[in-house]
Design a protein that fits this description.
The protein is α+β, with helices and mostly antiparallel strands. The protein folds into two domains: about 60 residues, lambda repressor-like DNA-binding domains (434 Repressor (Amino-terminal Domain), Orthogonal Bundle), CATH 1.10.260; about 110 residues, PAS domain (Beta-Lactamase), CATH 3.30.450.20. Helices cover about 40% and strands about 25% of the residues. The protein contains eight helices and five strands; from the N terminus they run ααααααββααβββ. Strand 1 and strand 2 form a beta hairpin. The longest helix has 17 residues. It comes from Halobacillus amylolyticus. This is Helix-turn-helix domain-containing protein.
Length: about 190
């Protein structure tokens, strides 16, 4: 399974762990996910154990069954020009599911390790006014299905940093909201 947060083997392992965790949190067996994704259970087990990579079609079927955006969890790497343009820029792009758990993050602040935040909410790692405001923004985006933007101040290891955060709903192929996308731009002094 390719995941465009990282190209290293450790990142792929973390994503597969997230897939297993997601399945278990929803009290699903491998058989249930395989049946819901219209694939063989043995094939699904091989995906979880990293012995097989799913095709784009199969990855989409699994993601749809688990109600995560297939383009986030199982897609090819970001296009090289896009990746280079954003890398080390003051822009962070992230997606979360309906429970506000991260399903994807690109170019985070150095205080955040993508391998540790995927599958978790902001308040699982820290709690401060900035995180509370960010979580409320994402909740409102999901509940109202509206685009919302605001400035939010975060206490980071390098001091307080203000971000302009733009949030919008993420939809599945049937038009049902399955999470929120955020773009955070660091406001330079």
């Amino acid at each position: 399974m390719n995941y465009y947060l990282t190209k290293d083997v450790m990142g792929v392992i973390k994503i597969r762990e997230w897939l297993i965790q997601l399945r278990k949190e929803r009290n699903l067996t491998q058989q249930q996910v395989a049946k819901g994704a219209f694939i063989d259970r043995a094939y699904y087990a091989q995906i979880e154990t990293s012995t097989r990579n799913p095709s784009i079609a199969v990855a989409s079927q699994i993601a749809n069954f688990l109600h995560v955006n297939p383009y986030l969890s199982f897609s090819a790497h970001l296009s090289e020009p896009f990746r280079i343009a954003l890398l080390h820029s003051p822009v962070i792009v992230a997606h979360c599911d309906l429970e506000l758990k991260y399903t994807w993050m690109f170019n985070p602040d150095p205080d955040f390790d993508t391998n540790l935040v995927i599958g978790k909410r902001d308040d699982h790692s820290d709690l401060n006014d900035g995180i509370t405001e960010l979580m409320e923004l994402k909740r409102k985006v999901i509940e109202t299905e509206a685009t919302i933007h605001r400035r939010i101040l975060f206490p980071l290891s390098t001091g307080h940093t203000e971000y302009y955060i733009f949030g919008q709903p993420l939809y599945n192929d049937e038009g049902k909201v399955l999470g929120a996308a955020t773009t955070s731009t660091e406001l330079l002094p």
